[in-house]
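Quick review question:
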């Protein structure tokens, strides 16, 4: 399973015709990440002449026409069709495309990736929680390909306001065993009978639910905000570095 994006933006997006519900936008973001990001890129500008993040396409399409393009593709080009998409609703992808065009708020590319790398490895101490290309800790998500999956504006939000954007699979959980002290860690998996997490020592722990007194999902991120810890220039540099991380 790929990571899913569920940006906790407030409210829906108001467009000329109607409002797109936030649940659709979130669902569309997840589908976009699964089906479209490899070709169109996290900013939507990786195919020449098209820039979803700025609402730039060959012409203005109606929502219905976009749904058709998503279903049928564009024959004779590299744009594949998704068919009937049992796994999701093409209308939700349209809502997501409209939402990123309505809120371009793109981070100005004033950052320097090389300086950002230094901040990540030294002052920011990011590797005490994250891994990049095999270096660092497993406590937080691996950032090796974060630049291929997230828009720069989302990366910036992760740094300034981590609580706004905790992805479901990054959530922290607190478990209290019937015969022991509470343990907090990152959820790896859960089913009817067990809960698995990694704790801050990076140990993989599995608990039978029957042995637990309490399982609570934490609402806030384990990541500190860097709003006051880094200068605006350092934030821009770190975002530029993260955006450059596109896998091994
Ligand atoms: C395999 C690569 C690939 C994938 C995957 C892909 N696209 Fe495309 N898409 C393209 C290419 C290439 C074009 C340009 C086609 C052309 O030359 O007309 C395109 C064109 C489009 C257009 C028309 C834009 C315009 O300017 O007219 C839309 C809309 C679009 N894609 C949306 C999507 C969505 C939404 C998804 C995911 C469901 C997706 N694409 C998945 C490669 C891809
Ligand atoms: C105390 C541990 C900790 C530190 C230090 C930390 N992070 Fe995080 N970070 C996390 C956790 C846990 C998450 C997942 C939960 C969330 O999304 O907030 C996360 C999420 C992220 C995400 C979102 C990942 C995604 O897939 O969208 C980015 C980007 C990120 N961190 C970058 C950084 C950078 C850059 C630094 C250093 C400036 C840093 N983090 C420092 C723990 C940490």
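Suggested answer, residue by residue:
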């Amino acid at each position: 399973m790929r990571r899913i994006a569920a940006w906790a933006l407030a409210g829906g997006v108001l467009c000329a015709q109607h409002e797109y519900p936030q649940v659709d936008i979130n669902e569309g973001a997840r589908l976009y990440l699964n089906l479209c990001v490899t070709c169109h890129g996290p900013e939507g500008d990786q195919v020449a002449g098209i820039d979803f993040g700025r609402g730039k396409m060959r012409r203005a399409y109606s929502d219905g026409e976009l749904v058709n393009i998503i279903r049928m593709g564009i024959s004779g080009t590299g744009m594949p069709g998704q068919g009937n998409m049992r796994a999701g609703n093409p209308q939700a992808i349209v809502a997501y495309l409209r939402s990123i065009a309505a809120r371009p708020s793109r981070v100005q590319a004033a950052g320097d990736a090389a300086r950002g790398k230094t901040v990540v490895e030294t002052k920011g101490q990011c590797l005490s929680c994250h891994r990049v290309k095999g270096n660092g800790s497993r406590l937080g998500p691996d950032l090796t390909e974060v630049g291929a999956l997230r828009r720069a504006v989302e990366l910036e939000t992760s740094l300034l306001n981590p609580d706004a954007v905790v992805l479901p699979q990054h959530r922290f959980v607190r478990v209290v065993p019937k015969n022991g002290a509470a343990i907090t860690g990152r959820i790896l998996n859960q089913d009817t009978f067990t809960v698995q997490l990694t704790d801050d020592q990076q140990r993989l722990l599995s608990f039978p639910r029957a042995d637990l007194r309490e399982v609570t999902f934490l609402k806030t991120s384990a990541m500190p905000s860097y709003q006051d810890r880094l200068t605006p220039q350092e934030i821009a540099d770190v975002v530029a570095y993260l955006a450059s991380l596109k896998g091994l």
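Why it works: The pocket of heme C (ligand 2) is lined by residues 3, 120, 124-126, 128-130, 139-141, 143, 146, 150, 155, 158-159, 162, 165-167, 170, 221-223, 226, 238, 242 (CB under 6 Å). Confidence is low (pLDDT under 50) at residues 1-11.
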